[in-house]
Predict the 3D structure of the following.
Amino acid sequence: MEKATLLLFQGPNKPYRTFTLSKRGIRILLGSAAILALLAGTLAYTSISLLSSLSDTREKNQLLTEQVKSQSEKIGELDARASALEEEKEAQAKELEKVEVLEGKLKNFLGFPEEESGAAAANQGGIPSTIGDTLGSPELADLEALTTDGPHKGLAEILNFLEDEQERMKSVPTLLPVKGTKKDIWISCSFGWRENPFTGAEREFHNGLDIAGPYKTPIIAPADGTVVASGEDYYLGQYIKISHKGGITTTYGHLAKRLVKRGEKVSRGAEIAKMGNTGRSTGTHLHYAVIKDGRYLNPAEYIWDGLNNPLASRM
């Protein structure tokens, strides 16, 4: 076929038009149509691929977004936990400082070294003792042992011991029996051997602790107990004796005034007398003695309320 004629109808009432194409024109037209069809197919395939890839990308982006959100939440939780741990660490450090301070104070007052006897003989007195009066082991020796037995005994064991022994300790004379301050209360004579305060020429065993202070300084009960004696004595002057649990008796001598009677029950910290200078005495003071099972003990070893003890640095 050398030529081709194309009829173009424009409408039912309009004349048609004719186009004559040569063989070469037909080839060009068919080639163009094939190229257009190929381009259309390629474009369609490319579009479908792009749309599929875009869908996959969107899904991946959504997944990544969820993962980022999840990781952000985890990071937030870790930050919160880290902040909480830091705060807890700071709080524990502060508590540890308090515990260490308290432990130091408690340990500091568990043992009381005796003060050397001075040359001065003022503000002393008491009952002459025989050589048979010797140092005894105090009821609280097991408390002191808490800080020496084993590789380490800390505050926890001390506090546990105190909690377990709280009721019993109310009857152990651990309080300083004198109300006063470091300015006006002092030890005028320690427990143990001393020169006779009246003659100065002979040594005698002092079976108590002489605590000097202003006249009529309040004297208090160092523990719960019952008054077993309240009267006057040549050596002690006006005196009081209190019986406590565990076979312990405490004596208070040279009083200016007695505020309790025999048979009366007294509570720990209750005022029982006024400091004076009665009996065999060289000045205003309290002669304080602790007796357990008939043996005189060093009262200083019982006075371990160190946090409030005005004599803590002097014993």
